[in-house]
Amino acid sequence: MVMTMWPILAGVFLAGAGLAWAVSSALAKSKTSAAEARVDELRQQRDSAAEGFAGLRGRLEEAEQARVAAETRAADIATRVAEQQALLDDAKAKLTDTFKA
Questions:
Q1: d(C-alpha 88, C-alpha 81), whole Å
Q2: Choice among 15-19, 68-72, 73-77 with the minimum mean pLDDT
Q3: What whole-number distance in Å separates Cα of residue 34 and Cα of residue 18?
């Protein structure tokens, strides 16, 4: 009776090992599929963020150009105002001298 148990035990052991291999293989494939899906999702997020970053960079460059143009206009206006103030002061002095004489 002991002799007939060994082949049965060996068969049960082999069946259990095969079942364990099949289950672990299925779990590994499932984890691999989930990881690949996550990688694809992260790639999409990265691409979307890169597009958004490029758009923001363009808007920043436009804002910088607008700022430089505004500063240039402000400097020109300040120069013209100073010139006009000098002309006004000169005219005022001449009129004052004219009416005092």
A1: 10
A2: 15-19
A3: 24
Distance between CA 11 and CA 39 in Å, rounded? 42
How does pLDDT run across 2-53, given as a tens digit for each residue? Answer: 567 777 777 777 787 878 888 788 777 777 888 888 899 999 999 999 999 9
In Å, what is the CA distance from 44 to each residue of 39, 49, 51?
9, 9, 11
For the chain, the three-class secondary structure string (H helix, E strand, C coil) is CHHHHHHHHHHHHHHHHHHHHHHHHHHHHHHHHHHHHHHHHHHHHHHHHHHHHHHHHHHHHHHHHHHHHHHHHHHHHHHHHHHHHHHHHHHHHHHHHHHHC
